[in-house]
Amino acid sequence: MKRIITILLAILGVTFAADAQKIKGSETVLPISEKAAQVFMKSNNSGNVTVTGGGSGVGISSLIGRSADIAQTSRKMKFSEKQKFQRSGKAVKEVIIAYDGLAVIINPANKIKKLTREQLEDIFTGKIKNWKDVGGADMKVIPYARETSSGTYEFFKEVVLKNKNYLSGIMSMPANGSLIQSVSQTKGAIAYVGLAYVSASVKTISVSFDKGKSYVFPSETSVKNKTYPVVRPLYYYYLTKSEFLVKKFIDFILSPAGQKIVREVGYISVN
Amino acid sequence: MAEKKFYKRLLEKTIEQLLRISGTVTSITILFITLFLFKEGINLFNTPDIEDGYGLYVHVANQKEQLSPEEIKEIFDSEITNWNQLGWKDAEIKIFRIDDVFEIYPESEMGENYALLPGKLAEIISKEENIIAFLPKQFAPNAPEVKELKTGNIRWQDYFLGKEWLPTASPSPLFGALPLIAGTLFVSIIALLIALPLGLGVAIYLSELAGEGQRRILKPVIELLSGIPSVVYGFFGLVVLAPLVQKIFNLPVGETALTGSLILAIMALPTIISVSEDALRNTPREMREASLALGASRWQTIYKVVIPYAKSGISAAVVLGIGRAIGETMAVLMVTGNAAIIPQSLFDPVRTIPATIAAELGEAPTGSAHYQALFLLGCILFILTMAISVIAELISKKKSYKVH
């Protein structure tokens, strides 16, 4: 009974609260928004924030359709999406709320410690098939990717593969967790995950974006000082005219308390 | 008294009507879902084969008028790097995408609402004879030096016979459904080959050989298995089964068609066992007794009398089992590796239709080619399962013993 009353009250709260706001979009940004919303609502009784995932693209189309007040994305808005806003006469604002480094991970049994961008490109487009071609043991390379719906999939394709397609028939995994699991039990595996997801059961390698002159290992410092090349900003998008509604929450996320949450969840803070 | 009778009849009538309505609504809903599925799916073949709202532009000196989706993909993947590979002059292909323009000109030079953008694009293309540019139609450069390549619609043979599934490739997505269809059928059939003999064996044991006490424990336990959520099976498959398969067969990867089939077989077993056991037990006692009285052994009775009698029930079990296998999404998504290749052996990874739909529909923009392609996959799945139930129906109707 108590629970029913709580639920009813929650529903009433969502319906009547004057500054209720909905955040929708990327699964990568989801943990930040959820945690921040929790803390925000606790410290600020009048504010009501609901957070849902669905993917970066879903978030942006919800923003256009006004079913979300903030779109959380793990990639910059595409040109075609910007066009849609322009056509409907809506001005949109962009805020970077955190950074996320993409780590390239392999099985701990693999001796490889570093790879260049070109080698990664050849591995993920299927040109390099054996680890001995990049100085490793004589073992088949098994690249894993995320599913096509993931912002991470697109980001890696854009930055590391220079917009080339993954080899057709690449192994693909629906979630970061299963990706890590697969890499940890497959000797020849190679994959990429957000830094927040790296665990001890896989090995992270250094990468070079200047043809092998310098290799950088992904860490909080190297991501923050931008020496690590595979870093993406995480964004919030909102309509200029609803700024009054979302301002409080965005200010909160950019405040020291908000950025502390960003670090706690495993991402890199903005400043 | 009469009043009471009237109310009773009224109640009966109402219930009767309610049942009728619910029946009608159910049938209409099913019909509606099917229609919707096909309507969305069929539209795919009216969709242009490059990304909607975009065009490919070349210099007017270029002799090519049209490129196939595969050629476009290979050009933008830098697998075709020279125009002479496409039958034009010996010159390196220069690829240009809309975002590249911002590296040449700053956004501030584009004017209000990108009004000056088409002019800039025209300038870039007219300067470079070997260029191929992938641009939004809205900013189509309009100059005598620029030519737009003709595009066709997605063709049905590219869909049903295509071997590459790259739905988000840009500029030209490839929707080759053949690996997905092959993968689905392959995994399901292997699963059935594993589950059917096992399931039938257990069912025969339970109905004919096991004592009442054993049966009373075993049957609920087996039926409990079908209550486990499929994602739990998937998790079990990924963490336990995949490494096991990898170790036993000494494979580079554990996520294979075999792993998927094993998990599906485990999932289909409870249904197959439970349904066929019911069918076997429904064989009338008199038939068994008659067979035994004629001097047949227990095994002969099972083999010659009970199984033929229960044939339609067993084929129902097969249909339900394979239906579960073909339509299963989550478990398969986690253990088969989801690589869109046509499986050559049990140890290749596969990508099935339900897994593809589940993984991709969330991010496919409504009404896009990708969205329609996924709906068409749904249609294929529907037809596959329907065909299997029709076949099973035919088998079960066929009398195996002649009536003298």
| Helical fraction of chain A | 25-40%
What is the CA–CA distance across the termini of chain A? 46 Å
Number of strands of chain A: 11
Mean pLDDT of chain B: 87
Give the N-terminus to C-terminus distance of chain B in angstroms. Answer: 58 Å
- The value of Rg of chain B in angstroms is 30 Å
Strand order in the sheet with the most strands of chain B? 2-3-1-4
Oligomerization state? heterodimer
Relative strand content of chain B: 5-15%
Order of helices and strands of chain A: HEHEHEHEEHEHEHEEEHEHH
Unreliable segments of 5+ consecutive residues of chain B = none
Ranges of chain A with pLDDT <50 over ≥5 residues? 12-18
Description:
The complex is a heterodimer of chains A (271) and B (404). With 271 residues, chain A is an alpha/beta fold. Chain A has helices at residues 2-16, 30-43, 56-64, 79-87, 117-124, 151-159, 176-185, 220-224, 243-254, 256-265; strands spanning 20-25, 48-54, 70-73, 92-106, 114-116, 142-146, 171-173, 189-194, 203-204, 206-208, 231-239. In chain A, the strands form two sheets. In chain A, strands 1, 2, 3, 4, 6, 7, 8, 9 and 11 form a nine-stranded mixed beta sheet that branches. A two-stranded parallel ribbon of chain A has the order 5-10. The longest helix of chain A has 15 residues, at 2-16. The relative contact order of chain A is 0.19. With 404 residues, chain B is mainly alpha-helical. Helices cover 59% and strands 6% of the residues of chain B. Chain B contains 15 helices and six strands. Chain B has helices spanning 2-42, 69-76, 101-104, 117-127, 156-160, 178-209, 212-225, 230-248, 257-281, 285-293, 298-309, 311-327, 330-335, 353-360, 369-397, and strands spanning 54-59, 94-97, 131-136, 146-148, 165-166, 174-175. Chain B has a four-stranded mixed beta sheet with strand order 2-3-1-4. In chain B, strands 5-6 form a two-stranded antiparallel ribbon. In chain B, strand 5 and strand 6 form a beta hairpin. In chain B, helix 1 packs across helix 15 (369-397) and helix 7 crosses helix 9 (257-281). The longest helix of chain B has 41 residues, at 2-42. The two termini of chain B are 58 Å apart. The model of chain B has no long low-confidence stretch (mean pLDDT 87). Classes of the chains: A alpha/beta (271), B mainly alpha (404). At the A-B interface, helix 3, helix 4, strand 7 and helix 7 of A face strand 5, helix 8 and helix 14 of B.
